[in-house]
DNA sequence: GGGGAAGTAAACATCG
DNA sequence: GCGATGTTTACTTCCC
């Protein structure tokens, strides 16, 4: 299993790569946008202007077929250029209009051939500057306006609006043309012919050159993405994303960037749609933080969606706020209190292209993770199926946790097949009930060929019995004739402890066995004998004479004594755990930042960090803590009637009093939880507070 | 390979 | 005598 774990990790990586292979334009664009965020836009647009633009812009899909239907880096870039164009045009027009005020209105400009609606159109372009400052100044200076003057002004405004609209259309048209040029530039680059195109081209060129300069000046420490270095390790990115996926993204980004550069050199890449690189640096403020925004983009990978903010802004447990720091990707702005955080959130992380892009990146990451989870589930299923098929083989490597039971069940079933059935000829290896509602780990495949197994289910690897375990797998064991991976002693103890009075007669123990486990509904002679044997053998089981007769109780002290094999020293288990964690690591990386904030310990993070692997780790944790959770059976809630949810809920992570040497943090906790060959140690956590870290 | 734990089988005793 | 219960022994397997 160790080897398999290692292989699994590797294959996981490949799987991740595969998952990332479905690279997407969104990520690419977003990433590039993020990168470009770190670069200085050539367009000098004030923060207020851009904010206004961002708020009012209407965005359209990327001309390059980008799937973005909402604000994108492209659109922002286009907006800026368009904005600049408009400003220039307006200035020219204002001059012309001032001249035309005498002669009349000037007809709108030309260039309105095709209203291609694939270009960002800013409503803001149309509204805020209908009256230019000069005009306003004139108005103010004139103090009094005659009706004619007002009419002229109105007409001017209308003309301006028309011109702006036409400019926008022109800009759209240019976008299309430039896009076409981009598509054609591989074959024959075309030079912009029209003056307007040249103007835009010049601006774009300058902008892109500036972008390139910024990229070159970008500190490597913050972002390793460098043009022409596609193989550079994406360390910062790797923290937020799967490395292979990042590599894939990097390739896409760099390839696009290379094309961008090449196109730029050809003077034919001036189209805004060449890349989704946004000149989105919305403001100078963003320029300042942009170098960090490079990492922001990576961090955005694990940023909660902004869409959810509105629902949670009123909650002080805001997912974007913790430890007095804004958790927005790359922000890390210190907010003294929640109110300041809210202000900061609304001010710094308003709805703009960057935020939207980051959200999209995050969405993409989540999708990738989900995809990865699905793949891993398939892999797990295949593994178990494979192992089941291999059950005819003489040996099967033990596996941790419930997988062990699955494997061992199959193995022992095959091993004991000649001798397994004789116990109950009347009940052959019954077709196992397909259990879908059963435990998360044990699957139907592991249940086949399960017969009387002369084998103990290594408590070292395996799950110490616990209320949680039984509760989790209750239905499974009740319906499936699968031998529970617990020792007789543990089961007996569990049965006794689950009783209200912590004592049971032998018959009641029998009943508990048959009630809880379908497996024990047959081969009665065998397992009953074993029960009796264990009751007598182990000192922990004390026979007490009662009015009704003899009842059996559990001497916990003795039970504790009888576990010499401390799993704290069980390397295989630890290895398993570590392997699991390693397995989790790649996917976990996406959320390391958030976890780091909380200083979440290792295996807790493994379960928390990644939603996709959270199940795995959670299952493991459930199993691990199930051992300790068994406290409940000794506690007030140990009544048999407690619900599975109740049983599963508590997670004890406190040190084991009887084994102080095992208190070494989460890992030692894990080992402690597993090392016991039995479930006795559950007792040790009796009345211990529930670990609330793991949620 | 040894030792310990666990599972299985069996013999035996006791008791109702 | 029979079955349930309880004890003990022997053997095997597994794991460390």
TrEMBL record:
A Pfam family assignment: FOXP-CC
Region (Disordered): 1-22, 287-315, 412-449, 628-695
Bias-annotated ranges (Low complexity): 422-436
GO CC terms in record: nucleus
Protein name listed in UniProt: Forkhead box protein P1
Localization in the cell: Nucleus
Superkingdom of origin organism: Eukaryota
Keywords: DNA-binding, Metal-binding, Nucleus, Repressor, Transcription, Transcription regulation, Zinc, Zinc-finger
Gene3D superfamilies in alphabetical order: 1.20.5.340, Winged helix-like DNA-binding domain superfamily/Winged helix DNA-binding domain (1.10.10.10)
